[in-house]
Design goal:
It is built from 5 helices and 13 strands. With 228 residues, it is of the alpha+beta class. A 6-stranded mixed β-barrel has the order 1-3-2-6-5-4. A 4-stranded mixed beta sheet has the order 10-7-9-12, with no helix packed on it.
């Protein structure tokens, strides 16, 4: 299992002072876990953003604080800025390698569905992530979903169709939950109804403005109005 290394520093700033920290190119963070005392941290923004893009929330990260011993953690939660989508806060959860954990795993869709490419249907993904339970060492990076069985509009892929690695268990008990299916193309009648539904309607009592026709007679008047 790939393990990513990350170095952080102890943080003394808190509350509104975290704004100064962010302005200096750093991200406030906290590390905690069962039986672990919560500890405030700070990290270089560019470093943690690169690690988060690679690790997401389902890869073990070896987090080292200063000169201390590295601990196995998962990125448990992140806060993102509204303006530029930058990380503004990160939570790390310390994991024990001999203790079962719960994590969300992304679904990776592969293959080609004839109902899409030949039937001109639309692939509908009802799930993008699934929750699993396993030991940290068994944590998969993703679960593959082969969509090639979707060769007509009646077929679906459910949780029961997933190939779950040994040592990994889905937390969802209803295995008939649909992951993906293909919707048939809309008929002309349906498209017309859709067009009618999205037509803009004037508010009650409002009237459409009549277009202004510019002629040689009123062109001068128009120019004078525009200058006002």
């Amino acid at each position: 299992m790939e393990k990513i290394e990350l170095v952080a520093s102890k943080r003394t700033a808190s509350g509104k002072k975290n704004r100064i920290l962010r302005a200096a190119g750093k991200v406030p963070a906290v590390v905690y876990g069962r039986g672990v005392k919560s500890e405030p941290l700070e990290l270089e923004a560019k470093v943690i953003e690169r690690v988060y893009r690679h690790a997401g929330g389902n890869k073990i990260v070896a987090l080292k604080v200063g000169e201390g011993r590295a601990r196995n953690v998962l990125i448990h939660d992140v806060q993102v800025g509204r303006a530029q989508g930058e990380l503004t806060h990160v939570d790390f959860y310390v994991v024990r390698m001999d203790e079962v954990l719960t994590a969300e795993i992304p679904l990776h869709f592969t293959g080609e569905a004839d109902a899409v490419f030949k039937g001109e249907g639309t692939l509908v993904k009802n799930l993008e992530m699934v929750e699993v339970e396993c030991l940290p060492s068994d944590l998969p990076e993703a679960l593959e979903v082969d969509i090639s069985p979707l060769d007509d509009f009646e077929k679906t892929l459910t949780l029961a169709d997933l190939k779950i690695p040994v040592g990994v268990k889905l937390t969802e008990e209803d295995l008939e939950t649909i992951i993906a299916k293909v919707e048939p193309p809309r008929t002309e009648a349906e498209m017309e109804e859709l067009d009618e539904a999205v037509e803009e309607e004037l508010p009650e009592g409002a009237q459409e403005e009549e277009p202004v026709v510019v002629s040689e007679e009123n062109e001068g008047d128009k120019d004078r109005r525009d200058k006002k």
